[in-house]
Amino acid sequence: MLRKLLIGTAAVVAALWATNTSLFGPTLEAGKTRLLSHRGVHQTFSAEDLENDTCTAERILPPTHDYIENTIPSMRAAFEHGAAVVELDVHLTPDGAFAVFHDWTLDCRTDGTGVTEETPMSRLKELDIGHGYTADGGRTFPLRGKGIGMIPALDEVFRAFPGRQFLINFKSQRADEGQALADLLNKNPEWRKATFGVYGGEIPTRESLRLVPGLRGYDKTSIISCLSRYLALGWSGFVPAPCRNTLVIVPLNYAWMLWGWPHRFIERMKAAGSEVILMGPYQGGDFTAGIDHAGQLALVPDNFDGYVWTNRIEVIGPLLNPHGNSPGQTRVGR
Hints:
- This is Glycerophosphodiester phosphodiesterase family protein.
- Its EC number is 3.1.4.-.
- It is built from 11 helices and 9 strands.
- The protein has 2 domains: 33-44 and 53-214, Alpha-Beta Barrel (TIM Barrel), CATH 3.20.20; 216-319, no CATH class.
- It has helices at 2-20, 72-80, 121-124, 154-160, 175-187, 189-194, 202-211, 220-233, 263-271, 294-297, 313-320; strands at residues 34-38, 83-92, 98-100, 165-170, 195-200, 217-218, 247-251, 275-279, 307-310.
- By secondary structure, the protein is an alpha/beta fold.
């Protein structure tokens, strides 16, 4: 009886291994690793004791460039460094524009004051978004005067980068913001193609997904629902509903737990209409940690057929494609 039990157990283990190993899975095409640039090329800052209302412009590291996040020059630089997708943040203003700007209020980065979504686009265009950046506790402001008039509207971004793709981050919990974006995309098919996906505030994210056919996106609740259900059921190859037709976020430090990681997992997600985005290590905060240095990039599987989220596109882009290959071309080392 014991012998039969051991044989049966071994058979189950072998079947699970055979179902989920990438050794015998479909052969993935080399060179498909794509980069998703968070905020474009931007100023980096200390993440120590970071909270939701921390003014990150007041804690930047000594600048090595003049790029400011969420601006057209920073996005252009990100694409030039190899980004396939650029992430940007939006706020629906009283005059019906989507302002591309990170912060909920203007006081931290700009020479203005007030709530971003309550400020007309015409006023936002007058501000200096480099005003508040300092690396030495306010003794010097190296970007002051260099960001005047540089808050773009979302339609400006789309017009500036035909054929490029963007991941749109809703900063609010307003349903009308999701409806307004849906209106914009449904009326402009080229801008719909330019929208890789949406995420952020659960209410506008889900509203835009409801109103725009085929649009993919996620929020924190949907990420957890997808990954937890897949951990429970993925051993069989089954892809649960929260992982279908969406963007599947995978933290680097938890990827090994996913059944079939990496190639079987990715093939299952693709067959279910989803794309996989590999993030940096999740440490209990939000899902925006990136693959930001060579040591982390070395942990990305070879021939990874998905997207790699990075906060340092100017570092990771050249490491991933040292010979300047365009996104989707052959990957040449790390």
